[in-house]
Design brief:
Elements (H helix, E strand, L loop, with lengths): L1 E5 L6 H8 L7 E7 L2 E6 L5 E5 L4 E9 L1 H12 L3 E10 L2 E10 L6 E4 L2 H21 L6 H20 L17 E11 L3 E9 L10 E7 L2 E9 L4 E8 L1 H6 L5 E4 L1 E4 L6 H13 L5 E9 L8 E8 L9 E2 L8 E7 H9 L6 H24 L1
Parallel strand pairs: 1-7, 12-17
Antiparallel strand pairs: 1-5, 2-5, 3-4, 3-8, 6-7, 9-10, 10-11, 12-13, 12-15, 13-14, 13-19, 16-17, 18-19
Helix pairs in contact: 1-3, 3-4
Amino acid sequence: MNSLFFYGTLRHVPLLSVVLGRDAEALDVVDAVLVDHEVFAVKNEVFPMIAAGGNGAKGILVFGLSDLDVERLRFYEGGFDYDLEPVQVQANGKTHDTRVFFPEPGLWERDGTWSLAGWVEAQGNWSVFGAIEEMSYFGSRSREVVDAMLPMIEARATAKVNARVNNLAHSPGGLDARDVTDVSMTRPYANYFTLEEYDLTFRRYDGRESEMVRRAVFVATDAVIVLPYDPVRDRVLLIEQFRPGPYARGDEKPWQLEPIAGRIDRNESALITAHREAREEAGLELSALEDVAHCYASPGCSTEYYNIYVGIADLPDGVVGVSGLEEEAEDIRSFLFRFEDLMDMVDRGQIVNAPLVLAALWLARHRNRLQEQVRGAT
């Protein structure tokens, strides 16, 4: 059996339990200190690093770890470029020979102190959800392949956290997630997006359990959608770009006219994403965001969830152009339309992007208020 010293995120028992694939509460755990070392935050990362020097690194010493436990831990920590090294720690008034995950020398830049409590509050939930998917690939995918998937794994984990907060959905039937039982899940496809298959039963409205059913779900991320509107000039900015969905359907017009849109990245708020995407896709600075809707795109088969806004912006003639991130192979052209022309396209069925139709109809209802607010401010 093995013992390991943990000084960082794996001191969080729910995360350690996921990584080990078993109940970490049953482990033999004691508080410990690695003398002459200190724990630091890592610049631009959410996890800490340990380095020689200082007044001692506090952590936990875990006894009774199997070789499989260690391999699972190596797989998880390998994604953050750490490896095991032998050390001696102080615990219960004794010196213990053990091992600890050290970062590769020179890999990370220190960024002040690191707090476990602060990390749990800010990143603990999505980190646990991310580890659940990450560890599901243990034994079937290489660490290098999983490393390449991490940004989307973490974005999907952030979506799971978002699903548990600020949920205003009205459900008059009174049923909730606790009425779904006997759930088993497989993941036949996982890359940039994933496909999950669920076998489950659910409570019927007559109180009986349904028969076992299988449902396939396309697992995406939460997304932000922004329709930029200039209430002074009374016009909007739309973007056009190639979209593989319409192309795969056989649409002869896979270049789609749509609002600004983008996924919510790891531990990022919808509001921050909205401003970031406006800059990336159209070079715009938004002065305000108006809530339009927060809704699922296609709840019968997809987890994708939209946070839709109208963004107040200055839209002079010269604002249009071609934008997008080169590293994401984006080639995005922007266009200006008068409000009347936008609504005419909606009426003629020329707008085939559902969030844009929704945002345009919302704008038609609230346009006068937005224009009055600008006149009042001037």
